[in-house]
């Protein structure tokens, strides 16, 4: 890592915390998309000030889980509960308005529009908010000010609010996506593969911000294939295998060997 980024880099890790109330919960939720069952009988909960890590080999339902908790799909049976209320309307814009922040799995396909500017991408999910719009026109000054704040607070390098976002490196694009969510202090943060393909410097910066959100009381759902990321950030861990979730284990019990067994579906041996 030191050779790649030119300096010594250490990943931050979680401090002890006392979780609060449950903010996000799935109760026996099954998701069917395009006629195929993607998720089966999901049970999990995430509390305020806590990170639940979902570990798994790629292609086992992580993307479908991300869509469910972002309001892009809904359960065919069972429930998704947010802030103590069963969700009846699955609408991504409404989820954002209620306090859900989302780092999507694919930053290029789902998180940003390459030919739009940084400021346009920064307000992409909130363009109808009163802060940025009067209902007819976008308040560009407010949007640029918001973007400037993200650039400074999250150390986004390589562009100005008026630069095309496709000109940024992957790490800086991811920091902008993270910043547009965390600047609004979400109560729930969905982080799907948040550091995939990034250098160690960007990984450490993003981990620090995820831990900061947890420390401020956010319920963090971390979906990742990176064992070190899960072990370093999560308070509890569940494995996803063929669209099903294992029983949870506490972070103190999580190690590479045990998580490997869980990812293989050997839950009785883990």
UniProtKB/TrEMBL annotation:
Residues 24-267 form the ABC transporter domain. It comes from the Bacteria. SUPFAM superfamilies: P-loop containing nucleoside triphosphate hydrolases (SSF52540). The keyword Transport applies. The keyword Transmembrane does not apply. Keywords: ATP-binding, Nucleotide-binding, Repeat, Sugar transport, Transport. Pfam families: ABC_tran. GO terms for molecular function: ATP binding; ATP hydrolysis activity. Belongs to the ABC transporter superfamily. This is ATP-binding cassette domain-containing protein.
């Amino acid at each position: 890592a030191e050779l790649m980024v030119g300096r010594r880099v250490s990943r931050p890790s979680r401090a002890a915390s006392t979780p609060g109330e449950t903010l996000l919960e799935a109760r026996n939720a099954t998701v069917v998309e395009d006629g195929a069952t993607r998720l089966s009988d999901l049970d999990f909960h995430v509390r305020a000030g806590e990170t639940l890590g979902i570990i798994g080999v790629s292609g086992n339902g992580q993307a479908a889980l991300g869509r469910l908790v972002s309001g892009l799909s809904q359960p065919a049976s069972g429930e998704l509960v947010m802030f103590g209320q069963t969700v009846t309307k699955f609408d991504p814009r409404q989820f954002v308005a209620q306090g859900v922040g989302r780092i999507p799995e694919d930053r290029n396909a789902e998180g940003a529009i390459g030919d739009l500017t940084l400021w346009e991408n920064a307000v992409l999910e909130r363009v109808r908010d009163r802060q940025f719009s009067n209902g007819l026109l976008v308040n560009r000054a407010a949007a640029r000010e918001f973007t400037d704040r993200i650039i400074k607070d999250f150390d986004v390098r390589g562009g100005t609010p008026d630069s095309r976002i496709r000109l940024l490196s992957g790490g800086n694009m991811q920091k902008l996506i993270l910043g547009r969510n965390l600047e609004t202090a979400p109560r729930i943060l969905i982080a799907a593969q948040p550091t995939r393909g990034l250098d160690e410097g960007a990984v450490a910066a993003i981990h620090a911000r995820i831990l900061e959100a947890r420390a401020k009381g956010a319920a963090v759902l971390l979906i990742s294939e990176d064992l070190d990321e899960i072990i370093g950030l999560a308070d509890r861990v569940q494995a996803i295998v063929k669209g099903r979730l294992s029983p949870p284990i506490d972070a103190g019990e999580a190690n590479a060997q045990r998580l490997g067994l869980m990812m293989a579906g050997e839950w009785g041996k883990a």
